[in-house]
Amino acid sequence: MDKLQKGAVATSYLVYGTDRGLREAVRKAVLEASFGSVEPGWDYVSIEGEDVWPRLREAAAMPPWTAPVRFVAATVPDLEPSPQKWAEALAAVPPTSRVMLLVESDRPAGLETLVKRLAAVPASMVVDCTPLKPGEAEQWAAMAAARLGRRLGSSAARLLVHRAGTNAGVLQSEVAKLAMYAGRRSTITVDDVVAVSVPSAAESVFSLMDAIGTADTSRALAVLHQVLAQGENPLGLLALLVRHVRQLWLARASAGPAALADELHVPRFVAEKLLAQARRLDYGDLAALWRRLADADEAIKTGRVPGAVALEMVVLGLEIP
């Protein structure tokens, strides 16, 4: 992404990762760099589905119709038929074309082989669109605000990522809403984020863990059902719970809220909430919860127990069959 932000342009692009928002941002950036204000029209080709590799080669070999270059974007779930064939296709792109291979996987089989092959192709670029880490997401949000002529300070960015998550597309949408809310003000503040951004499932996990920590099973089940009713995937919620338990484990050994906030890259008030929760759950409690979460993960992935039921059993402290 750094090269794209600096205006670098290549002939062939390998773009991989499951963050759809990042992939779309890359595609738009390259389109703009390739065509400028010129409408691509017939010279923009999108390929997906069956037999992508031969269709991409054929489309890339054709000269542009009316635009300066021909742009071919091919979307695939993995690197079948082989990394070598994709390397050959990306290395053979004529100077009148731009080819972008979008791989919807964070670590597709053969990725390292393909990246090494492309390193020898001067006009190629590899772009990592795997899910952003919290610090990267904060930088992404700040850059999205800058593109709209606004400044998103570090505290506001950290709070936004905590509330909205690290998905680039979601952050882009949230920043756009914040810019509108800020009106003529050039800076988006923490108060703006509190007023506008929609809390994600990650915030609901705090309420869920509060209820678990105080043995309030009725409230814990109510929060769980509310989050699931909002469309959260059970495995996604399970992953958030695992992350939260890990954070609580680190909180018990932390020197204080400032140190914990820096270690976890979360706002200070979040670190304070984690420390408060950690005081109610000792290492034995956390270890038992960790085991229940691991059992739930296996039960859901093997199909033994439906996701919602497995999570209910975690909350209730029941053994998962």
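(the above was protein one; protein two follows)
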Amino acid sequence: MINILLLTVSIENIGPSKALYEIAAGLDKSEFNVSICFCSKPPYNQLKQKIMDAGINIFDLDMHGLYSVKGLFRLCRIVKKNNIDIIHSRLIRANFYGGIASHFMRVCHIVNIVDDYNRHFTDFHESLAGKIFKRITDTVINKADRIVTNSKNIAMGLLKENAAWSHKISTIYNGVEIPQLDLHSHHRNAVSSNQTIKVGSVGRLAKKKDFISFIEAAALVLKKRNNVIFSIAGDGDQKEILNERIKSLGIEKNFTLVGHSENTFSYLSDLDIFVFTSHFEGMPNSILEAMVSSLPILTFDFSGADEIISNGAEGFLIVNRDINELADRISMLIDDKNLSMKLGNQGREKAQKHNSLKIMVDKFRNEYFSLISTK
């Protein structure tokens, strides 16, 4: 039996937390004993309930702020008490603490990097704090047993950072649940020029997601037609800013921030077109979930986007973050029902083939066994 501790920052980082839950739930319980640990105390939500229902142990480090000696000691105690063999951490702060704890407790450490490594420090920390944190994190990652990315572009970026990491870097794409589709769902029946069209996106209302661009593209579309409803499912600290921009453009009747959706697939099933405007990502779960929901994808061409979307096959990549082109592509898909359905169906087929939960879980299973066998 291999004892694994999956460590991440916060259950409110839904994508990373959900991915760790899916790994824990998918592994064979006769081979692995898996627990999930959060740096901050997890509030109750649907994901926490799913973790508990699956019989997965939940720990938290009750951390406040970037640095916490008490949190580190708590982590070490959890590792010792539960005879942890592997700490598998995901997100930068979790990687930082997981690396230090694994060194002190002499256990294996898998670092999971799912975002643009350098841009994280540039965008999320003040200049001096970011430089210090990055220097320490570089050391932690250098000592890790394995580095797993969810994007080949992220892996290449890490190799530019340190070519010596090449022997321990691998890429495992995110997996996604494949829902059964209602053949009579809204987006399969839409789109004559007189019907209401629904265009949406999913994600934290954070600056890096650049939902302002989505709002501005929506305003351009609404100048020419009024039968389109736009929405974003998610919560975050940019909510007030986004609402103000919606009001300033006079599109509040056609653009809604619907808040966090406990059932993403239910929200997606009501859409005709999915839009993604983030500045940088690894492999976004929200795009994968939209693909398996048979939605055509319009996404800004961030680094790694072409690993998910082939331009013109499952959707369109919008270069240079061009808001006018995004608006034009939305209008094009509204007008061309057959193209919209074709892109959506091809996207679902691609995600089923390359991004199933089973594929992801099996690859992590192999990673765990491989790591233990070398120790």
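Reviewer note on protein two: The CA atoms of residues 280 and 303 lie 7 Å apart.
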